[in-house]
Each structure stands twice: as structure tokens, then as C-alpha cells.
């Protein structure tokens, strides 16, 4: 009877554990996961102008413009050369004051700086706003990233510059190669340079509008030339330095010859000298080439100072490491086979040397014992000389 009770108890325990095991083993039902297989919407680009900043609020919808002719018909040619990409116009209010902002966007920083230098007039004072700024009365122009801002206040106040600096911090910032300034600017001599007179051009319209000294057709913009023009305050008088950057030194050499001949022709030159060139002291005009750069100095400074200024122009070749293509499969296989061959040669040499030393050592040992070398391979027996 006790045996029967034990059997019943064991069976009950097994059934209870089995039930619990079944409950634990049964997977819990999870709610279905919804997977969105539709296209992912790209992030919206940062607006060119914010709706509000520094207490200013948009008085109406900010107008975005894609057509360069609608953005600025009078300067459409130059803006195209600087690679115009869009514009925005907004009117802002703060109490009884008003602020009109015209924002121009470009594909890269080079075009942005060029457009800024195109609109900035010589003699306008510097304003510490954005990357570079200037002002004239109630009008302020500055550039930041790939945007040029032209702002007109109804009334300039002591905090106007700080308010525009806050606006500059909200503007889009380009990345990578688009954030590089024109390399030609680094070739400008810094001594006696009036930085507020620097004008960068990528085409004939921007060059002529920025006070270019030479006829635009003589510069060679059809050969992808870039120019920078700047004024210098020398002791004997003002001088203007023009730098032209060509893709190759050969192009620069050919264009230098044409510019020299044009300067030498004087009043008989065709086309006629532009006013900045005609107003210069002929004795101070000088042309010089350095690598792909062609420099022209003009103005009213004495020849000695003009020559000294143009002599400081020097092109430094900046060598940049160019990423090489990845190693091909053929090259990898060749390197593998060469490695295997090297291992075989080294191993074979080691085996030969080892055999030579071991075999030679054995032969010398036999000679030392008075035996001929020919017996090196003889089998030796140990005799115990056991006697009964």
C-alpha cells in the first residue's frame, strides 16, 4: 500500500512540473511589427531666411526665387558667373521699425565671396558681421557660408550689427570642397593691401562690374581664368594689382604675351584702354608671370614702388596627395606568389646550410677519430666484449 501511495505522489508531481514546463515553453504572442516599405522622405533643406530672429518677425511670407533674372535683373550676368542657386526676399517688422533683407545663395563659397566683393563698393567701411561685411548708411552687406545678405534698415541702431550677427549664425553652412575660398586670394601680397577693395571675378561681367583694369576679352575667361583685383596704398600713391589665374602655366605664358603687347600698343591699342588703365601712369605699368599667375600693376605710384609690389607676387605650388586606386586582384596575386617564392628560397637555403653544417661536422668528427671520410655513412655497432 505504501508503494501505491508513493507512485501516486510521484505521478502528481510529474504532471505538475510538466504543466509548468509547458507553460514556460509556450512562446508569448507578440504584437505584429509594422514595417514601412515606402520611400523615406529626404530631410528638408534649411530655409535661406528664418521667420524670426533677434526680435524681428517676418511681416509676411518670405518669397523664394529660383530665377536669377527675377532675383536681380540688373546684375543677372554676374550672378550667373558666380553660380547663383537661389534667393529669398523678406520684410521684417519690430514695433515701428522695418528691415528689408535680400538673400542670395550660391553653389560654393568662391561664388559667394565673388558676389559679395562685386556688390561691395570701394571705400565702404568694414563691418564685423559674418565672414565679411561692410555698410553704407542704413544698408549692410555681409556674407556667411554660401549666402550673401543685403539688408536695409529703416533706422540703424547700436544693436543692428549684433542682430545681423545672430542672423548670420542661422544661415546654411556648406560642407566639403564647397566651403573653400578662392585659392588665388592667397597670392595677394598683404603689405599695404586695402582688403575692402578686393574684388574676385569668375567671368567678364563680374570682372567689369568689379572695376577690372583690362578689357574682359583680353583676360581669357573662356579659358577658365579667375581674377582678383585689389588696391594698395603705397607711399608715392595708390596702385592697383590685378592677378589672373589660369589652369596651366602654358596658358598663362600665352596670355601674358598678349597683355604685354596690348600695354605696349598704348593709345593705338584695340580695344581702347579702359578708364582705370588710361588713368594710370604709363611708366608704372608692368606685367609679370609666376607659374599660372599673370600679374599687372597699374595706378599712380612711382615705377620703383610698382615694381617692388609686383615682384612680391609668387606662385607656390601646393602639392596635394591624390588618393590612389585600390590594389587590383592581379597585383595582389602577384604579390602572393612572390611571397611564396621568397619563403621557398629562404627555406631551401636554410636546409642546405643546415645539412652542410651537420654533415660536415660529422665528417670532421670521424677524421678526428682517425677514420676516413668515406666511412661517414657506415653503420656503427657497439661491441660490449662480453666474455663467458
Task: Please describe what this structure looks like.
The protein is built from eleven helices and 14 strands. It has 388 residues and is α+β, with helices and mostly antiparallel strands. Among the domains are: 52-176, Protein Transport Mog1p, Chain A (3-Layer(aba) Sandwich); 183-311, no CATH class. The strands form two sheets. Strands 1, 2, 3, 4, 5, 6, 7, 8 and 9 form a nine-stranded antiparallel β-sheet that branches. Strands 10-11-12-14-13 form a five-stranded antiparallel β-sheet. Residues 1-34 and 319-324 have low confidence and may be disordered.
Provide a quick synopsis of the model.
Helices cover 35% and strands 23% of the residues. By secondary structure, it is of the alpha+beta class. Among the domains are: 52-176, 3-Layer(aba) Sandwich (Protein Transport Mog1p, Chain A); 183-311, no CATH class.
Low-confidence stretches: 1-34, 319-324
Helix and strand succession? HEEEHHEEHEEEEHEHHEEHHEEHH
User: So how many helices?
Assistant: 11
Based on CA atoms alone, the radius of gyration comes out at 42 Å
- Major β-sheet, in short? 9 strands, antiparallel
Helix and strand composition category: alpha+beta
Proportion of residues in β-strands: 15-25%
> Mean pLDDT, as a whole number?
84
Shape: elongated
**Share of helix, binned:** 25-40%
Counting DSSP E segments of at least 2 residues, the number of strands comes to 14
Q: Cα distance, first to last residue?
A: 86 Å
Amino acid at each position: 500500500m505504501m508503494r501505491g501511495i508513493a507512485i501516486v505522489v510521484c505521478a502528481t508531481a510529474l504532471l505538475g512540473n510538466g504543466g509548468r514546463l509547458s507553460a514556460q515553453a509556450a512562446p508569448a504572442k507578440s504584437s505584429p511589427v509594422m514595417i514601412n516599405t515606402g520611400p523615406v522622405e529626404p530631410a528638408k533643406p534649411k530655409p535661406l531666411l528664418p521667420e524670426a530672429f533677434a526680435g524681428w518677425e517676418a511681416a509676411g511670407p518670405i518669397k523664394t526665387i529660383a530665377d536669377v533674372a527675377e532675383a536681380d535683373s540688373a546684375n543677372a550676368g554676374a550672378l550667373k558667373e558666380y553660380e547663383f542657386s537661389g534667393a529669398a526676399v523678406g520684410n521684417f517688422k519690430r514695433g515701428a521699425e522695418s528691415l528689408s533683407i535680400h538673400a542670395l545663395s550660391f553653389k560654393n563659397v568662391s561664388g559667394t565671396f565673388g558676389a559679395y566683393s562685386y556688390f561691395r563698393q570701394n571705400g565702404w567701411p568694414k563691418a564685423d558681421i559674418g565672414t565679411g561685411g561692410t555698410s553704407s548708411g542704413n544698408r549692410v552687406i555681409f556674407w556667411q557660408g554660401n549666402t550673401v545678405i543685403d539688408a536695409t534698415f529703416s533706422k540703424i541702431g547700436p544693436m543692428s550689427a549684433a542682430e545681423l550677427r545672430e542672423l548670420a549664425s542661422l544661415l546654411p553652412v556648406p560642407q566639403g570642397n564647397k566651403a573653400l575660398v578662392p585659392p588665388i586670394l592667397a597670392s595677394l601680397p598683404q603689405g599695404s593691401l586695402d582688403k575692402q577693395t578686393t574684388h574676385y571675378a569668375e567671368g567678364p561681367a563680374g570682372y567689369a562690374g568689379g572695376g577690372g583694369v583690362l578689357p574682359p576679352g583680353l583676360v581669357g575667361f573662356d579659358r577658365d581664368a579667375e581674377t582678383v583685383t585689389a588696391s594698395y596704398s603705397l607711399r608715392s600713391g595708390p596702385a592697383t594689382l590685378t592677378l589672373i589665374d589660369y589652369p596651366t602655366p602654358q596658358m598663362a605664358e600665352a596670355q601674358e604675351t598678349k597683355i604685354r603687347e596690348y600695354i605696349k600698343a598704348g593709345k593705338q591699342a584695340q580695344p581702347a584702354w579702359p578708364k582705370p588703365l588710361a588713368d594710370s601712369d604709363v611708366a608704372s605699368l608692368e606685367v609679370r608671370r609666376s607659374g599660372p599667375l599673370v600679374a599687372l600693376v597699374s595706378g599712380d605710384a612711382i615705377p620703383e614702388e610698382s615694381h617692388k609690389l609686383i615682384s612680391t607676387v609668387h606662385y607656390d605650388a601646393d602639392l596635394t596627395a591624390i588618393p590612389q586606386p585600390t590594389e587590383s586582384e592581379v597585383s595582389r596575386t602577384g604579390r602572393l606568389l612572390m611571397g611564396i617564392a621568397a619563403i621557398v628560397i629562404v627555406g631551401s637555403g636554410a636546409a642546405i646550410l643546415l645539412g652542410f653544417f651537420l654533415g660536415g661536422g660529422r665528417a670532421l668528427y670521424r677524421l678526428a677519430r682517425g677514420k676516413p671520410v668515406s666511412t661517414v655513412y657506415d653503420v656503427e655497432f657497439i661491441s660490449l666484449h662480453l666474455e663467458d
